[in-house]
Amino acid sequence: MMRLLAVDTSTLSCGVAVTDGEGLLSESLFTSRQTHSRHLLGMVDETLSRSGLALGDLDGFAVTVGPGSFTGLRIGMSVVKGLAEVAGKPVVGVSTLEALARGAALAGKPIASMIDARKGEVYAALYRPDGTGGVTEVSSPEAVRPEDFSERLAGEVLCIGTGASAYGDFFRNALKEKVFFAPEYDTIRPSVVAALALEALGRGEGKDAAALTPLYLRKSDAEIALELRNASEGHG
């Protein structure tokens, strides 16, 4: 059995799950506009306790690495890296968009996974169910305007995620009867993150905690502000 703890902090939802490789032992989900740093460690402790496991019993860890909230991703990755280093166990980084799509794979339609990126954009990728409960990536994750992404969607498509809920009216008007929504799939389930990570570990794709890197599709506001300040000082 492969005992694994999975974490997602990429959106307003914060999730933790523990699995033993054969089934889900415990799962916690919490949605808040407060920073996830205020409750993530407590959720980890509670979820482990309900599963009947301790940190030392785990064989690996998983965390969503993006795209998503810059702050949220940093919090989740920092906590999981710390836990993995203490336990001396491997870590798997999981795509948020793939986790969303995997959760909706049994719906049987092409899936447009979208996370609200603000500033009039979504983080998006298109997936196709593989018929076995998994998904195959059709288009790579990108930061894109809904108007541009909609032009790439041909035929029926299931739109899910916070991007789908934020721009639902636009996609309904643009795609008419070809678009479908399923709000029950809009939240990333940490149990799905765990399932994807277990498959990756089975393929030997676990990493040392130090090697884990985020998937950022655009620069953060802080990086943009720093570049503008440096450019301004350079012209001064």
From TrEMBL:
CDD domains reported for this sequence: ASKHA_NBD_TsaB
Domain of life: Bacteria
Domain (Gcp-like) ranges: 33-225
Family annotation (Pfam families): TsaD
Residues annotated as transmembrane: none
GO cellular component assignments: cytosol
Name used for this protein in its record: Trna threonylcarbamoyl adenosine modification protein tsab
Biological classification of the source: Bacteria, Pseudomonadati, Thermodesulfobacteriota, Desulfobacteria, Desulfobacterales
